[in-house]
Amino acid sequence: MDNDIAIKTENLTKAYRSFWGRKKILALDKLNIDIKRGEIFGLLGPNGSGKTTTLKLLLGLVFPTEGRALVLGKTTNDVAVKNRIGFLPEESCFYRFLNADEILDFYGQLFRISGKERKTRIDRLVEQVGLGFARKRPLRQYSKGMLRRIGIAQALINDPDLIILDEPTSGLDPIGTRETKDIIVSLKEQGKTVLLCSHLLSDVQDICDRVAILDKGKLQISGTIDELLSSKDVVEMLIRNLSDEAITEVETFVREKHGEVISVKNSSDTLEGLFLKIYAANIGNSKTDI
Amino acid sequence: MQQILVIAKQTFKEAVRNKIMFVFIILGLITICCSVFMPVVGDGIEKIKIVESMCFRSITFFGTLAAILLSASSIPTDIANRVLCTVTTKPVQRTNIIFGKIIGFTYIIGVLLVIMGGAGYALIKFTALKQSVQGNNKLLAREKFDPYTSQVTGESAKKIGDVSWIEGGGKGTSVWKFKGLHSKNRKDDLDIEADFLIESKKRFTGKIPVNIKVVNPYTVKVLTESIEVSRNKPGLLKLGGEFLEGSEELTIVVSPENPGDFIGISSDSLKVFFGNKSFEYNFLKGLTIISSQFLLMVIIAVLGSTFLSLPVNILFCLFIFFCGSITDFMRDLSTVINVFETHEHVYGISTVLKETNAFMVFLDYVIRKPILLLSYILPDLKNFSVGKYFIDGINIPYKTVFMSFGYAALYTFFCLPISFVVFKRREMA
């Protein structure tokens, strides 16, 4: 296996069977993907397209019916390779009677991290995911978003080379979503590989280097965001401070050159951008008040 | 090992927060305490026996139920809540998860035994102290000796099944030899207990006189006594330990006193008790045997939890607990359902007529054989029953402790590898 490849699947197939052993659902059908080291790879698809099944197969939680998967050069039943993997499940499922510190300590011990190192990492991660104020509170009192945050923290407790995130921003508010995206980007900057699976297309578009789209268990398309979204015969220009007359002149010029103007409109921000601006302004005001 | 202990600690914490364990402990404690208020016919020793019996039965019953419910529910609950889904993505062998769970349950069993056993012991001591006013405060742990040879002689001797029958009036005798009778204190009581089947041709009053001749072969000291043996109560002859002076052997000759009276003898009909061991030590041995039963049920529950859902697994474990407690009855039942019709002889001996009955053949395949098979496959929980030792005030032999532990270990030896293989192949979907 190429050293640059973090994950490789070859004809990876999973069929769930009924109690009597009959084939019931073909969840994944001959999936072939290569994920390079150091990239953020997005797995997209509607519900039931086989995204989570792919992750489970890569983590050895379920076993392939056909084909195989190699993760960091090892087969998925190799327990040792899990030392280098961090995983955030779709639903944050933890012992609910433990608090943030205890749950991270529990997972840290499973990775055989020394006590001192564990403590350092727990302190850093709890602050990084913004749960410093609730670290001694039992997880059963956490909101869904807080559980996602602690889920991200536990996925990073072993300082993994490969992070697999299933719907990382699900249940998070826009601030939490932005922070999570920032964490993911910072992981890439540290040279780590991130495989994330989401149906929130904007999240994926914002941070992923490459994506693959699955539907009904089959790979529909894969490639870089630019490759998939760029349209060679359509040009987009963003221009600031242009008068109405100048716009008319530009349109005339385009027509003279046999081009077609599809639309002319004022640029608009995204809703996320607007929300973040308001949030930032409020923070600024409250700081002034203090 | 660190991972196993981490999972064990987590399992224990989970059980503590579940509160199921405490519910069973409280129920057990209530039952133990209720034994003090139970009415008793007889002397103070009977009262102590009732408390001892209730104490061990409560610990066994509620402890086993707690062990079953906790261990049968832990893995299925963790799978249903998807907690194990996260844990198995960490570098943990699935065998370590099973080991961790079992060790966690062992902690729980330990706590359960300490609390319930401690309360039971305190109550027994308290009862014994209360009875001391009447001079019956002795908590017994007598050493039991079985005969190394027994012989039935005389013209009346007749063997039916495992029982040899002899008639009184000099027409038959049984000779029993005991050796290795030793005690630290030679002045300890030496008790001979005769538990015979009895019959009589005469108007039967339910009890017959039996002659017992006790011989010390070393000093040739002879003691002849007549005791009454009844159907429900064994005859008891009390001797001082001094009788054994210079010897560790004893020969006992038994015969019914009157012609027309019969006694039926089997290999364990006559026992000798000599020397009183520490009750506390005996109590601990009892708890050790019970803990082996708990461990056995935990192993079975963990095995079930690797492939069964929570409610099915609990039912599966309760079924094993129930059937394991009545294996003797299951074997008897399978004996009763016989393919061939039998005819009861006038002397109580059944005769096989060799006539097959279609319905009986059906029963044979559908009920008898499966029951018989189950009775041999399922663990026989009678091996962990300690109540009888305390009721009879008998010291539990080390052999029994090791045998019960070995019995549990044998099942563990078979069940654990199956658990590992099944759990390793289980998908955390």
Keywords:
A: alpha/beta; 6-stranded mixed beta sheet; 5-stranded antiparallel beta sheet; 11 strands; globular; B: 429 residues; alpha+beta; Jelly Rolls; 4-stranded antiparallel beta sheet; 11 helices; 15 strands
Structural class of the helix and strand makeup of chain A?
A: alpha/beta
Q: Mind describing the biggest β-sheet of chain B? A: 5 strands, antiparallel
Average pLDDT of chain A, rounded to a whole number, is: 83
- Report the helical percentage of chain B: 40-55%
CATH homologous superfamily name of the largest domain in chain A? P-loop containing nucleotide triphosphate hydrolases
Mean pLDDT of chain B: 82
Strand order of the largest sheet of chain A: 7-8-9-4-10-11
Rounded radius of gyration of chain B (Å): 26 Å
Roughly how much helix do the residues of chain A carry, as a percent range? 25-40%
- Extended strand count of chain A: 11
Encode the helix/strand succession of chain B as letters: HHHHHEEEEEEEEEEEEEHHHEEHHH
**Radius of gyration over C-alpha positions of chain A, nearest whole angstrom:** 23 Å
Identify the CATH class of the largest domain in chain A: Alpha Beta
Q: Determine the CATH topology of the largest domain in chain A.
A: Rossmann fold
Please state the oligomeric state of the protein chains shown.
Answer: heterodimer
How many domains would you count in the coordinates of chain A? 2
Number of helices of chain A: 9
